[in-house]
Amino acid sequence: MSALPQGFLIRPARTEDIPAVAALEAEVFPDPWPQHLYLQEVGQPLRFQRVVHTDLGYLAAYLFACWQLDELHVLKVATHPLYEGRGLGSTLMDEAKSEGERSGARGLVLEVRPSNRRAFRLYRYLGYDVLGRRPRYYADGEDALVMCLALVAPAGS
Ligand SMILES: CC(C)(COP(=O)(O)OP(=O)(O)OC[C@H]1O[C@@H](n2cnc3c(N)ncnc32)[C@H](O)[C@@H]1OP(=O)(O)O)[C@@H](O)C(=O)NCCC(=O)NCCS
Fold it and tell me: Cα of 111 to ligand 1 centre, how many Å?
């Protein structure tokens, strides 16, 4: 499991984080969620939400996920361009996996654009497999690849 690099802190997302989350979202996604969607999500039940800050208090990365039956669905994961390639994305994904394991999830699932090679490489590196494709899933018409990480059920279950 990846450890958070030195100089960064991880904790559950709170309402006061949302303006910075929405600003980073708008910077890194072609089809960003608006701030009000994040405000609706934060703190809801059946969610797993983490933010990473620098030790000076700047938002460096975040992950938002929700439970769908016995699967944890990773809705959003992003790292500020200044901090990419330092393991923040893998750490957040590992945290989501640990949450899935703790809660007895069958697996984790997410969608990714085939053109998003960096994210795709990250998910493949973490052991995710491509389950299928959702045609024209994104607003600009690009398909989504559906990727899944199966979790091993605890012995005796
Ligand atoms: C995708 C994203 C979240 C990755 O975040 P990150 O903090 O840079 O992630 P990490 O540093 O943990 O890992 C990313 C890179 O390391 C690779 N990886 C991580 N750990 C690795 C290891 N130990 N060995 C080999 N490769 C590794 C990944 O494949 C990727 O490789 P690249 O450098 O060749 O591109 C980030 O680039 C981002 O926010 N992109 C814009 C938003 C986005 O696309 N989100 C995902 C939507 S599905």
Answer: 15
Residue 92 burial (CB count, 10 A): 25
- DSSP for 21-36? HHHHHHHH-SSPPPHH
CA end-to-end span of the chain: 24
Residue 109 contacts residue 79 (beta carbons within 8 Å): no
- Tell me if 133 sits within 8 A of 143, measured CB to CB: yes
Topology at the third CATH level for domain 8-150: Aminopeptidase (3.40.630)
The protein residue with its alpha carbon nearest to ligand 1, atom 4, reads 89
Ligand 1 centroid distance, CA of 117 (Å): 9
Residue nearest to atom 22 of ligand 1 (CA): 125
Instruction: Name 3's Cβ contacts closer than 8 Å, sequence gap at least 6.
Output: 87, 91
Domain ranges for the chain: 8-150
Cα of 126 from ligand 1 centre, angstroms:
10
Measured from the Cα of 93, ligand 1's closest atom is 12
- Please identify every stretch of the chain with a pLDDT value under 50, giving residue numbers as ranges: none
pLDDT of residue 3: 82
122 lines ligand 1 (CB under 6 A): yes
pLDDT at 153: 63
